């Protein structure tokens, strides 16, 4: 659970509840700005919560943007009993988009800024939702299946065969999803007319830079950029640079 709130930065904010298409209630903060040029929706990483990106939100608010931070399902103070790494969490991002456009009737660009799982969800959503004006994706995975195999060998020293197959099978049975559908690379190839900034750290062993390099190649058009932060690990780019 989060410790800090926007109150410690002496900025006005509101506690809000978002409702995803499947009825899941998500808790969040909305930071207004009467002179804003647009809105940034912040998408935190796996096993974290909304305050992970609070400093970024305060910074962007000072630059003239509204900010919306929320807890993904099964994170922070939101409802939910499981995590699907993006299969269902895309609905959470869409609920935030709907809140900005419909509940608040805001105009102007909407930027998704996500870290790790949040970055992957930002790219997945941008491939499907025309309301997304731009994406900042830090340390996204390329596909859940690849990340699972990477973690099994890096963190648990387990062989890919048969453990990856077993974990995927059990996960798919429990959640009723197909892990093969969670391919951010395939989704990124469908992003149209939406600027994308991919950010990664040279010391990130969890989500290696090759993920960004491959994503960069498949994103169509010229409205894309990569930023590599020397010495940054996983999810610490804001503090490093």
Class inferred from helices and paired strands: alpha/beta
> Can you tell me the overall shape?
globular
- How are the strands of the biggest sheet laid out side by side? 1-2-4-3-5-6-7-8
Average pLDDT number: 93
- Give the end-to-end Cα distance, rounded to a whole number of Å: 25 Å
Largest pleated sheet: 8 strands, mixed
Number of strands: 8
Model description:
With 241 residues, the chain is α/β, with parallel strands linked by helices. The chain is 33% helix and 20% strand. It is built from eight helices and eight strands. The protein has an eight-stranded mixed sheet, with helices on both faces. Strand 5, helix 3 and strand 6 (134-138) form a beta-alpha-beta unit. Helix 2 packs across helix 3 and helix 4 packs across helix 5. The radius of gyration is 17 Å and the shape is globular. The two termini are 25 Å apart. 42% of the residues are buried. The mean pLDDT is 93.
